[in-house]
Amino acid sequence: MRFELYRDGKGEWRWRLRAENGEVVADSGEGYGRREDCEHGIALVKGATNARVVDMTLKMA
Question: Locate the DUF1508 domain: which residues (predicted)?
Answer without folding.
Answer: 10-55
